[in-house]
Amino acid sequence: MSEQLDHQAPSSDENVFVFPLSFAQQRLWFLDQFEPSGAHYNMPFGLRLRGALDVGALELALREVVHRHESLRTRFDVVDSQPVQIVSEEVCLHLTLVDLRDLSEREQGGRVGELSDEEARLPFDLRRGPLLRAKLLCLGEEEHIALFTMHHIVADGWSLGLLVRDVATLYDAFIRREPSPLGELTLQYADYAVWQRGWLQGEVLERQLDYWRERLAGAPPGLPLPTDRPRPPFQSYRGARHHFRLRRELLDGLSGVSRGEGVTLFMLLLSALDVLLWRYTGESDVVVGTPVANRTRSEMEGVIGFFVNTLALRTYVEGRESFRELLGRVRETCLGAYQHQEVPFERLVEELQPERDMSRTPLFQVMLVLQNTPPEVLELSGVRLEPLEIYNETTKFDLTMLLTEMSDGMRGTIEYNRDIFDATTVERLCDHFIRLLEAVAEDPSRRLRDYALLSAPERERLLRGFNPPPVELPERLCVHKLFERQARLTPDAVALEFEGERLTYRELDAQTNQLAHYLCRRGVGPETPVGVMMERSVTLIVGVLAILKAGGAYMPLDADYPAERLRHMVEDAGAHIVLTQGSPRGAAEWGAGVEFVGVEEEWERIALESSERVESGADVGNLCYVIYTSGSTGRPKGVAMQHGALFNLLSWQLASWTREGPARTLQFASFSFDVSFQEILSTFGSGGTLVLICDEARRDVERLLEFISKERIERLFLPYVALRYLAEAAASRGAVPLSLREIITAGEALHLTEGIKNFLRRLGGCTLHNEYGPTETHAATGHMIWNPDESPGVLPPIGRPIWNATVYILDESGEPVPVGVAGELYIGGAGLARGYLKRPGLTAERFVPDPYSPEAGARLYRTGDVARYLADGEIE
After folding, report:
1. Do the Cβ atoms of 200 and 343 come closer than 8 Å?
2. Whole-model pTM?
3. DSSP per-residue codes, 526-564
4. Which DSSP symbol is given to 406?
5. What's the rounded Cα separation, in Å, for the pair 502 and 506?
6. What is the band of 3 on the pLDDT scale with cuts at 50, 70, 90?
7. Distance (Å, rounded) from C-alpha 125 to C-alpha 33?
C-alpha cells in the first residue's frame, strides 16, 4: 500500500464534493446528533489588534484562507444513511463588524466580555455550516478585537496557529495590492480522511491495535478522584479554569533532571502527575490522556483540519519505588505509545469496548497537555497582534492540565469539571502538584511515598486545627456516679418505665444498691467481668447499674447467639457470674466455675441486702464494660472499655443536647451494642426518664411508631435503617410523633434520604445528630443537622471530634492526607478503649502509638474506615 497521500478524486455534484469522515470526525458527528445544541466542541480564540487596521484587507485575507483550506468550506450531513463531509467550492465568509467606539473604556470591557462569551457559546449547525465565524469589534481608530470561533470537527489546536499565520501573510500581501504568496496545498483534510480509512485496516490496523490491547488490558474503567459532589449521571461539560505559574528556577531544575535521566520534560511532568493522582486516589493503576498533533507527514503540517489524536498513557505507581525508577517506566510507556499513535482514539475505544458510563469519558478522565514550542510572534503591517484568551466554560474531562513554556517559566491552566469540583479543591491540588515538582527537582531519588504534598501550615491545620483543644473536665467519675448524683437531686422523678412498671430515681437507686451488695459478696469488684443474659426489662437495667456500682464490668450476652459462642465469651473473659432470667439453655455445659444468678428468682434474698451506696473502690481507670465483636477471623474479641473513656463521652453528650432539661428517652439499642450505654447513662445523667420497649414492638416499625407517639418520646437513638423505616411508616400513616425533639443515629452510615428529610420537616424543630465511632472508641465524632434542607448531599458528614478526642486521616505511610483526599481514619484521645481483653498481640496491632501527640504513651486506634476531611474540617 502506498504511503503517499495523493489528492483524491472526489464524488461531486455541481459545486460540492462528498468525502467520508475521518474516525475523529465521526465521533464528533455522533456526539452532535446526541446533543445538537451543544457548544462543547467550539474552539474560540481572539486577537487584540493595535495600529492602523485595513478592515477590507483583513476580510479579503480571511476569505482567501477559507478558499485555501477545504475544511473551512466543509459541512456535514447524511448520504445513503452514512455521515459524510460535504465540501463546497466556494463559501463566502462575512467579517461581522461591531462598533463600540461610543462606549466608555469600562463599558467597552464589559461588552467585549459579553460578546466573547456569546460567540464561544453559540452552537454551530454542522449540516449547514460554515463552521468558522469571525467578528471584529472596533474599540477605537487604532484598536480592534478579532473574535474567531471554529468547530473542532474541522480544526484542532495546531490549526488555530495556521489560521492566524495565513491571515497575517495574506493581509500583508493584500495591503500592498499583491497576490497571495501562499502556494497551493498539495493535500486537503478530506484527502487525509480518505487515506486514513483506506490505510488503517487489515494487517496495519491489527499491528497497531495489538499494542493497545495488551497495553490497556484490564485498565480500570475510571479513576476514583476525590470529588466535592457526586458525579451527575450524564456529562454536562460545564467547565472552569484555574491558572498558575512555575517559576523559571523550578523549570530549569526540572529540565536538568529530565536531561540527567534521559527523558523529555513531558515525561517528567506526566510522572509527577501520575504520582499526584496516586496520592489523591490510592489507585496504583493510573491512566492519563494526552494529545498528539498526529501530523506525521510534511504535507499535513500546513493544513487546517482535525488531525490531533489522543493517547491513553497507563502507568503503575508503587510507593516504595523512587521517582527516578518511575521515570524510566513512564519513558518506555510514552515511547511505545508514540510508535503506535496512528490508531484514532475513537477506533481504540470501539475496539476495546470499555465499560461505558455516560457520566465520564472512556479510558481516562485526566488529560495532560504540554506546549513546549515558543509561540510564533506575528504582526500585520503596522498592526501589533496580542492573543486574547477566550474560554467557553466547557470541559471534556474531569481534569485537564495545560502547560506552556514561556521565557520566564511555565504557564499552567487546570481546566476542571465544575459539576464535581470546587475551585478551592482544584487550587489545592495545583499547590500540591507544584510542591511535588519542587521536591522532584531537589531530589529525584526519593521514594514516591516520601514526597510531602502538604505545606507546614496545611499539615498543622490537619493535625491541630481540625482537632479541638483539650476540654478540662471539672471532674472525672465512674459513670454510675452520674446516676447516683441525679438520684440525690431528683429522687422522686421517674427514672424508668416499662409496660406499666415505674421506678423513681430513689427506688432504682435502692434496688441497684441491694443487687450491688449481693454481687460484692460473691466476689465482684474492680476488673471483674459480669455476664448479663436477660430480655429487655426493668431487671436488666437494675442489673447493669448494680454491676457498675459493685465495681465490676458489664458484659452483655445475647441469648440468640450460639451456645458455643456464649461459652467462649464467658470463658475468655473469665466471668464467674452471669445474671439471667431463669436458667439459660445449655447452662450445664458452661463449666462448674460459672454461677448463674436469676435476679428475679433471687430477689427475695437480694432485697435483704443494704440499700445504702456501695463503696467498691473502682476508679475511672477500671473496666466499665466488655463488649465482644465478631472480628474478621470470626473469633469474638472483647473490647475492654474503662470508665474514664465513657465518662468523657457522656460529659460531651450531656453538654451537646439541644433540648434543655430532662427528656423521655426510648431505650431502643441492643444491649450488646455500645450505644445502649449512651441511651441509659445520658438519660439518667440528665434526670430524664428511660422508656423501655418490648422486643416485639421494637422490631415492628408500625408498633414502634405508635409507641413513640403514645409514650411521648422526646429523644431517640436509632441506626440509619431503623430511622428510614420509621420515616416511611410515618409517611404512609400520615402522622408523625410530634413529641420528638432529638434523634441520634449511629452504628452505620446515615443516608439523608428524601423520606427522612420529609420526616424531619414534619417534626419541626427536631435535631438530627449523626455520630460515628467503632466499639473500640465508642462515639468519637458528631455532626448536628438542624435543617435537613441545608445538609449537603445524601451522605452527611460524621462531623468533628468530640471533647478530648483526636482524629487523624492518614495515608499508608502514616502521614496526614490533604483535605478532600481519602485516607484511613485513626482515633485517639480520651475515648479509646483499653484494648482487647487478654489479646495483647491484637491490641498492639490495632492500637498503635500516636506519633503526633506530645503525651507519652498516647495511642491511636486504626479503624480501617476510609474517610476524608472537607474544607471546613468536617469529616466525611
Report:
1. yes
2. 0.87
3. TT-EEEEE--SSHHHHHHHHHHHHTT-EEEE--TTS-HH
4. E
5. 11
6. very low
7. 11
